Known about the structure:
Elements: H1 5-13, H2 17-25, H3 41-45, H4 51-59, H5 67-77, E1 108-115, E2 120-126, E3 129-131, E4 134-136, E5 139-145, E6 157-160, E7 171-176, E8 179-193, E9 199-209, E10 220-232
Amino acid sequence: MIISADAFCHAILFQDYATIRSAIGAGFDVNGLRSNGRTSFVQAAQPAKDMVVLRMLYEAGAVADTPWLEELFNDFANGIERTKAPSPCLDAGTPDFTDEFTVTRFEYQAGILYFSEASSDIEIEIKPFILNGECVQTSIRADGIALSPTLDDLPDRTFNFPFNPDDGYIDASIYLCYGHNSVNISSISFKNLTPNKQQIDAVIEMLFVFDEIIPGYPTEAQTLEISLAIQTID
């Protein structure tokens, strides 16, 4: 089976094991990149921590790109089976959102701007929480962001974006309840850029759309002020 990179990624996100096996059997390169040119397939697979998918990628020669994945692949190599990832919710203070789920309760831990002249990406980690009895460790991922070609042009500028599917939209989502829920980003305003160009402050206007994946969950807008560490991508 010969499929596109985006189709292979879709199979990962929706746990379509048959398609993944067929594509790998036909020689699909699991170390290739998605159509945005930067996001790898193991990056797409990690939020769900689906051991079936991750083992298939490992056996097909996928290269680990995070410490957690390196440890997991070492376990696979040593014949150690994992059915469940170590829980990040062992802290007694981990909040439980089951009875009152709202994005206003999110605690944002770290943000990274993967900056490129052509298009940039942003990833923002959310502090683990409990939902419906399960530990949730997730992040907001935003790909294909059209910004200025140089970092020096970002401070004191606001960039506006249309919503999906209009041209120029940001492909953004949050993995929750076994699905990638849309996050529409309407604007990003940049403020202070550190002299060493390693960090920049940003204000991001977002609209979370959950009902496509999770019926009954609210659509909510949020304004996020956050400092983003900068990683320049060639």
